[in-house]
Amino acid sequence: MSFLKWVLVFSTLCIFLATPNLSVSFLNLEDVQNSSTHFLNIAKSPGLFDWMVKIRRTIHENPELGFEEFETSKLIRNELDKMGISYKYPVAVTGVVGFIGTGKPPFVALRADMDALPIQEEVEWEHKSKIPGKMHSCGHDAHVAMLLGAAKILQEQHDDLQGTILLVFQPAEEGGGGAKKMLESGIFDNVDAIFGLHISATSPIGTVTASSGPIMAGSGFFEAVIKGKGGHAAIPQHTIDPILAASNIIVSLQHLVSREADPLDSQVVTVAKFKGGGAFNVIPDSVTIGGTFRAFSKESFSQLKQRLVEVITRQAAVQRCNATVDFDTSNRPFYPVTVNNKALHEHFRNVAGQMLGTDKIIEKKPTMGTEDFSFFAEAFPGYFYLLGMVDETKGQFVSGHSPFYRVNEDALPYGVALHASLATTYLLEHQLKSTTKDRNVRDEL
């Protein structure tokens, strides 16, 4: 009898031997602790660890940008084939969704993003990126390796799973809205919950950072073209200066947060792009500005979007210019607020606490960064957490999107074990609740 089956038998006996008002809270006790520790020990075994490291380094050497992850996807499918795991491909161009278990409810998903960034790697090591101008500088190569590692463990237990685990290998997290496009495929219509992680360069190895509720902001991008009338810089009276208009617009946009937003309702407007003329003595015909806006609620986000358009167009008119604003949502969709489900937060704390210790769970403070996991968490209950990897004996680890970004591969087993334990205990908890409900019905009869 497999390990998971022993856990199931033990848990079921607890229900039928318990008093009538006993809940499934025993999942916080020895059975969860044993399964969590069991998964972590397997994930740390030399054979599985070395295999994951090889996978991660292969992907790192061959980075691919959003919706271009064809070789990464091929590697994933080859490994799933070797494990005997069925999958659907393509989902959202390059995405892969694997299935382990009965093929029946409940359905719980585990997600890993696959795409790299347009950054030239500056870290000199044996497995440096072989593709000029592209790099895995946000840890997505590690995310894929960890989910494949979890797949190996889970597949060995597939006969004992009372439900279905979806392995979600997602394209285009870095601005392409890959999660949104995967949802549009309809493959997640029956999913009950989803878990996702991101490896972190700010917290120690062996820790996780998480919290319930809103944890990351909703965001959007904008680009505005301000049109005037160009001419010689020595005779500005014969021109309509779009650079002056754009400058006033940028200053006015800062007032949206400082004077219109509730100080307790976090919002951001940043203009990070300004493209005007190309000569010192020529006033251009037009100027293009662009940036991002972010908020922690749908209402604030919608209001900010509306006021962006009003300020840009009306301030341009004050300077005798015309302005158009484009949000280009077909290529850069608005990202929702990332909200962690309260019930899943308790589930996560139980599993992570038993595996790592409650003192290793760090409370996550909300940030204005964004994560397209939010599309999943908006569609059904979701939970997103950070996996620590910092080890001071291995030098400094810089944050993501840096050409000097490194991954501490010793953190991989923790991600694997958390993936496997979160999913299996979620399915077990659902089965036990169903069993308890059936028992209560029999008691009433």
Tell me what the structure shows.
- This protein is of the alpha/beta class.
- The protein is 40% helix and 22% strand.
- It has helices at 3-17, 30-43, 46-61, 70-83, 140-156, 178-184, 242-258, 298-318, 342-356, 373-379, 412-444, and strands spanning 86-91, 95-101, 107-113, 164-170, 193-204, 208-210, 213-216, 218-227, 231-232, 267-275, 282-283, 286-295, 322-326, 338-340, 361-363, 382-390.
- The strands form four sheets. The protein has an eight-stranded mixed sheet, with helices on both faces. Strands 10-12-8-13 form a four-stranded antiparallel sheet, covered by helices on one side.
- The chain starts with a helix and ends with a helix.
- The model is unreliable at 8-29 and 441-445 (pLDDT under 50).
- Main sheet strand line-up: 1-2-4-3-5-16-6-15
Distance from N terminus to C terminus (CA atoms, Å) equals 34 Å
Q: Mean of residue pLDDT?
A: 91
Task: Kindly state the percentage of residues in helix.
Answer: 25-40%
Shape: elongated
Number of strand elements: 16
Oligomer: single chain
Number of discrete helical segments: 11
